[in-house]
Amino acid sequence: MRPGGPQRGRPCYPAGVYDPPYMERTRAWYEAQGYERAYRWAHFDDVPFAHLAKPLSDCRVALVTTGSEIGPDGGPVLPKRVYRHAVASPPERLYSDDLGWDKQATHMDDRASYLPLEALQELVAAGWIGSLTKDFHGVPTEYSQRRTIEIDAPELLGNLRDDGADAALLVPI
Hints:
Layout: H1 22-32, E1 60-65, E2 83-86, H2 111-114, H3 117-125, E3 131-132, E4 135-138, H4 145-162, E5 167-171
Parallel strand pairs: 1-3, 1-4, 1-5
Antiparallel strand pairs: 2-4
């Protein structure tokens, strides 16, 4: 059993059955798929996070999600790319069916769980946050550290700066 007991949607393993930790399972999965190199976890000695220059109540906040836009065929918009969408007219749903995530423990039916725009608007109304950017931003999962670092992150940063964001809330699927 996992530390802390069984978790909703997770299998309970009988006593004595080994449930390898997440990172070990991921390495084994990549090895079983025939990849020549073991999966390398991202690691950074320098991180681009900083303390806010002003109180959150004076900040313009951007929401960033990893969900994909849904295309006319019901699948993700391809090729997957960084995008922006008006906060004033959010889509009913984002797409992530093509990704590996725990679909037993959670689902995509509750948009507020991965795109909490209404909750952020309530925080603006209560004075906890100064304002939201006019757009929320998407960085669909590509499972490529190189693409994330060299292409997606610089494009997202440019979009956030264009929107005048002082801070970003990252909400992964």
